[in-house]
Design brief:
The termini are far apart. By secondary structure, the chain is of the alpha/beta class.
């Protein structure tokens, strides 16, 4: 049994060093919400399995090679018809980045319930999925539904709403995600995404969280970016401020936060400890360029306690 099973589309990321229309260099890496979470957890010492489909191309080989190099289990990954998807990151103003996707008809969008059968049968302590996978098409959505609803007893199901407006509307997202709530144990959402999972009649954040807990969700984790995060559960509310660091790149910060939260959950930490680790891993993400490249190992979690400008000797 693995600690965490996650599934979705991993893509090759191209990062521009300036506006694309003026030319310049593109740096190649790997991206994808679930892959980012998997790498973050693996760096913290957890056993993680990622399931997804890549193309039979060199980009797909790069995705799998990168995940293997980061100690992520890809034994259940598959090759599928279509190319491996691409995502382009273009810095525009300060920490504002324009993101363009080239994933229509990609191999990753071929993911279906059948690709998950072996991994689900072999078990995991946590099953992690996102609204991004659900938005990729009918088969990925069916994979999310079946995985969440048939997860073996004792498996903690975590869903990160992770709404992407370029993939589907808020109305489409709400129609797909709300029926999943009876199967979700840990729901993660930014404060503006919570309404996509909560019942339609719930207006305020407090009422949305209350309604989700009534529906069976055990923990409602609300990300507030630079303001930190808060958890609603049966015991009430627990909040933590963000860790202050110089911001270089906010892309991937939410995935880093989820990796930290699930890591502390697996370690048996209480909610406050989970939030502490989550805001710490989120801070590492925004302080470094790239989706996952700057994520910490377990030994490095203490680094942000050092005074700014310190040299670790």
């Amino acid at each position: 049994m693995t600690d965490v099973l996650t599934f979705g589309e991993a893509m090759v990321a191209l990062r521009a060093d300036g506006p694309i229309r003026t030319g310049g260099a593109l740096r190649m890496s790997v991206a994808g919400a679930e892959a980012n979470v998997a790498i973050g957890l693996a760096r913290l010492g957890h056993r993680v399995r990622w399931v997804g489909c890549t193309g039979a191309d060199e980009f797909g080989a790069l995705v799998l090679r990168t995940l293997r190099a980061e100690s992520v289990d890809v034994a259940c990954a598959a090759r599928a018809e279509g190319p491996t998807g691409l995502v382009v990151f273009e810095p525009r103003v300060a920490d504002l980045t324009r993101v363009s996707y080239y994933r229509a008809g990609s191999a990753g969008s071929r993911l279906g319930p059948g690709h998950l059968e072996r991994a689900l049968a072999e078990g995991s302590r946590v099953l992690h999925t996102t609204g991004i996978t659900a938005a990729l098409g009918p088969e990925p959505l069916r994979a999310v539904r079946e995985a969440a609803s048939t997860a073996p007893g004792g498996t903690t199901v975590c869903l990160d709403v992770n709404h992407r407006a370029k993939l589907w509307s808020r109305q489409e997202a709400a129609a797909a995600l709300r029926p999943l709530m009876p199967y979700v144990d840990v729901l993660v959402a930014s404060d503006d995404e919570l309404a996509l999972a909560a019942p339609a009649g719930a207006r305020s954040e407090d009422r949305q969280a209350e309604a989700l807990l009534e529906a069976g969700v055990r923990e409602v984790v609300v990300k507030r970016g630079g303001q930190g995060a808060e958890v609603y559960d049966a015991s009430g509310r627990t909040a933590r401020p963000a860790v202050s660091v110089p911001v270089k790149d906010t892309v991937g910060a939410g995935d880093a936060f989820v990796a930290g939260y699930l890591s502390a959950f697996l370690d048996g930490e209480p909610v406050a400890g989970r939030l502490d680790r989550a805001v710490t891993t989120g801070a590492f993400a925004v302080a470094c360029a790239g989706d996952w490249e700057g994520l910490p190992t377990r030994d490095e979690l203490r680094l942000l306690r050092a005074a700014p400008g310190s040299a670790i000797r």
